[in-house]
Amino acid sequence: MSLLTRLAGALACACAVTAATAATDDFPDRPIRFIVPWNAGGSNDIAARELQQIIGEQQKITVVVENAPGATGAIGLGKVVAAAPDGYVVGMGTSSTLAQIAQNLTPLRNEQFAHIARVSTDPLMLLVPKDGPANLEQFLAHMKQNPGKVSIGTPGTNNLNHIFAEMTARAAGVGYVNVPYPGGSRVIADLAGKQIQGAVLKPSESKPQIDAGYVRPIGVFGNDRLQVYPDVPTFKEKGYDVYPYGPLVQMAYVVAPAGVSPEVRKRLVDIFSKAIQSEKFKAFAQQNGFLVDDMKGQALDDEVRNVQATLNSVASKVFKPQ
Fold first, then answer.
1. Angle formed by the axes of helices 297-318 and 262-276, nearest 10°
2. Fold adopted by 32-122+250-319
3. Which InterPro entries match (predicted)?
4. 3-16 burial, b if ≥16 CB within 10 A, otherwise e?
5. What is the pLDDT of residues 225-271, one digit of tens each?
6. Per residue in 108-146, pLDDT tens?
């Protein structure tokens, strides 16, 4: 190989590196699409729109939230997988999709995503209409008196909400009717309208209706009472084990398509982490009853893998084979 050829090759490589660096330095130079795989008005949509506003105000970056509900999150996240891995399309992953993966109910796999930052971890609660059973004991007694007839709504199906609806029925020792919806906002509307008798929801998607007196929380699926609703007891303190197969966490997190460059992934991590760690978002989280942390990048990869392993075990014991 001639000296001229080697110099030309070196120059081409240098130009490519320079171009890539420049592209990363300029990222993003147009709006980022943030796909929320649930209906507008649900907890993940609310959190995404708060981040959209904070990122715009704080970093002068335009984020466009796009709702793509259906198939317990699989439709919207499928759009993320199909997008070019350039960082301009991201999505909101959730434990619900991990539950779908555990049961082979979706073609999605965690390897198809680059995990960016965790947005929230959410407790789940059992709620009833305003004039429903006064407490958890009365609700379970009502289920026993009406075996297989009491309806419990959940956003999506074969997910953590569905698991806890099933655990509620097991606590009563009877069957029930699971009523899945495309998002939490639809669940809470039908619960307030008494179309269903119970619901498993997050505080963040039910707090306005609770505060307005349309619905009431009667039990928390967790080990501790919630700061936002300290008078609501946990299933555990009432003697009911809702984690018989291991601990579960309901979480939401930002993902990009696998194949995004390390430089762009780092930039996305920086953008979203800065917004999630802002005092404004932390205050928003406290008001809406969910928790935030600084889990991101590789640590989030590990967390998703651990939650997936637990769900792989739990789902096979809770749900009937499809």
1. 80
2. D-Maltodextrin-Binding Protein; domain 2 (3.40.190)
3. BUG, Bug_dom1
4. eeeeeeeeeeeeee
5. 998 899 999 999 999 998 888 878 899 999 999 999 999 999 999 99
6. 999 999 999 999 998 999 999 999 999 999 999 999 999
The answer to whether 89 and 35 have CB atoms below 8 angstroms apart is yes
Q: What is the CATH number of domain 124-238?
A: 3.40.190.10
Q: If phi over 0 gives left and psi between -120 and 50 gives alpha, with beta otherwise, what is residue 104?
A: left
Mean pLDDT value of segment 152-175: 94
Return the domain boundaries, the chain. 32-122+250-319, 124-238
Cα–Cα distance for residue pair 251/172, rounded to 1 Å: 27
Distance, CA of 197 to CA of 213 (rounded, Å): 16
Query: For residues 267 and 59, what is the distance between their CA atoms, to the nearest angstrom?
Result: 12
pTM of the model: 0.80
What count of other Cβ atoms lies within 10 Å of the Cβ of residue 49?
A: 16
Do 32-122+250-319 and 124-238 share a fold?
Answer: yes
How deeply is 84 buried, as exposed, middle or buried, from its count of CB atoms within 10 A (0-12, 13-18, 19+)? exposed
